[in-house]
Structures are given as C-alpha cells and as structure tokens.
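BUG: 3D viewer hangs when loading the predicted structure for this chain

Environment: internal workstation, default settings.
Expected: structure renders.
Actual: progress bar stalls at 90%.

Input used:
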Amino acid sequence: RMIECHLEVDPKGYITSMFVLSAITLPVDLFGVYCIVKKSPPIMKEYSRFLLIYQICATVTDTWTNLLFIPIAFLPFPIVYHAGLFFSRTDISYSYFFITWLCLIVTTMGSVVQLFIFRWQAMLMKDHVLRLNKKLIYAICFAFFFLFNGAVIAAGSTMPNRIEELKPVYIQNYSCIAEMVNFRGVQYFNLGDYRRLFFVTTVGATVVVTTALFLVYLTSRSLQTKNVSQKTVDMQRRYQISLILQVVIPIFVVIAPGCAVMMFGAWSDINVSISYISQIQVATNVVLSLISCHGLFGTVIMVLVNQPYRRFASDCVRACMSICMRTKLTEMELRRRRSSQVRDARLSSLAANN
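Structure tokens produced before the viewer hung:
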C-alpha cells in the first residue's frame, strides 16, 4: 500500500532565494578578501595570511552553495539533486558535486582551526615548551585539511547513485517520490551510505568546534600567565575577542544547525517522520540557505571588529553617499534649468504674440 505524503519537488522559492543570496554574498565576501589583502596593517601581516585563507574558503563555499550547486535534499529520504549552474538535472553515477560541497565545508572549518592555532602560538613566549616551529604549524594545518577531506571523499566514493535499484521501490511505496518520476538528475542512495557520509561530516564539525574552544581556553590561559604589561594584555584580548566573534559565532549560527538538521534527517525513521515531511523540507531549505551565508556573516563581523577594515568600509559608504548626493543634486539642477528654459520660451512666445 502506497503511503501518502507531499514534497515540493521543484522548490522554486528556495532556488530563487539562493540565487538572490548569491548576488549579496559574493560581493560582500570579495569585499572582505580585498580588505584583508589591501587594508591589513603591517602588525597583522602574518595573521592576515591565515585570515585570507579562511575568507577565500568561505567565499568559495558560499558561491558553490547558493549559485553553482544549490543542493536540494528530501530528508529523511536519501534522495538529492542540485539545481545550480553546474550540470543541474544531469544524471551522474556518483554525487561528485555533493561531495565537493561537503569538502568545501570541512575545508572552511579546518581553516578555522588554523586561525586559532596561530592566535594561540602568538600568545606564547619564544622559549615556551609548547611554542611550535612555523613549519610544524603549517604541517598541522595541512594534516587537518587532508584528514577532513580524505574522510569525506572516502565516505562519498563508496556511495554510488543507486537509482536503478532504489527508485522503483520508493516510487511504489511513497506518493511524494512518485511525483518526481520524470525528474532528471535525482540521485538515490543507500540509507547506510547516506548516514555514514553525514556522520563523517558531523564528526569533522565536532572536532573543529572542540578544538577551537580548547585553543580559546589555551590562549586565554596564556594571556593570564604571560609576563607583559596590562596594555599589551588588553590589546591581545581584543584580538582574541574579535577572532571569536568573527569565526565562532558563524559556526554556531550556521554549521551547528546544519549538522543537527542533517543528522536528524538522516537518522530519523522515514515512516515515523512522514507526517512532518513538508516541515522537514522547509527546515532543511532554511538551514541550507543559512549555510550559504556563512561567509557573509563572517565578513560583516570581520569588518565590524577590525578597525582598519571598519574604517575603510565607512569611507566606502561615505564615498557612495557623496556620489549619490552629487548625482541627485546634478539631476535637480538639470530639472531646474529645463523648467527655466521652458518658462523662458513661454514668456518669449507670449511677448511675440502681443
């Protein structure tokens, strides 16, 4: 007996909102890249390199999510397709674009770890036992990169599209899946493979959050034990707070809800969740939209908490307002001249008639 359910097979509102978000996030993210490259003071030179890596990763992830890829997942069913600019509605044997998206997410999360490692190391005295060589720091960062991405690729490479095997089963048992019988590019996965991929990604996110919090603790402890002036401690504490605001807040606002929804959707029983299938789809779309704004949130906070970037942004806003005001005044002057010319012409015409 077929189970009745309803899914929005082609969520046009969600897809349109993603394209609109891409028009907002990409310019803002690129503005953040420009600020780091051109407006970082010499004192931030080394730190700005790590910050630039994070900003580029966040920019690419945002653009891939809300413009090039646009994932559409029908949780709790292990069924997905993508509606972005890259090969949408195309039948492929493996979910290469989905794996690429998860790799971009875990790479961005890994760049968060390297930011906190650098900040922690900057707080330690040169003769401190935990002070690491720069080459070792780079090696740790590369290790995080290969570990996270290797785990995702390994889990994804064992997850082929089982459309021929699973599509008839789902179409026969669920009316909402039967609605997409003629849809191209839809991918059907084994539930166990699907869960394994989400589990690996969530473990990576958990490692990042735990490591970041631990490094925040170590840095705060270093500030308390470091034999420097109070002025230096206050300055370093401001740097630490700005980093926490810039990186940790977007993680908890975006990545944590994303992992929670994905894990819930992947592990919930289909027959139990079927009554809430529409609500789950809406929640999934909202969370995916938030994930696509991760770089936007990070850029806005970065500009607000770093004085050189904030000053440059203020100058840009003032310059734009000045241009708009000059344009408006010019238009008003042109209208005034035209009306004056029309009035003079009418007076000349009246004088000629008299």
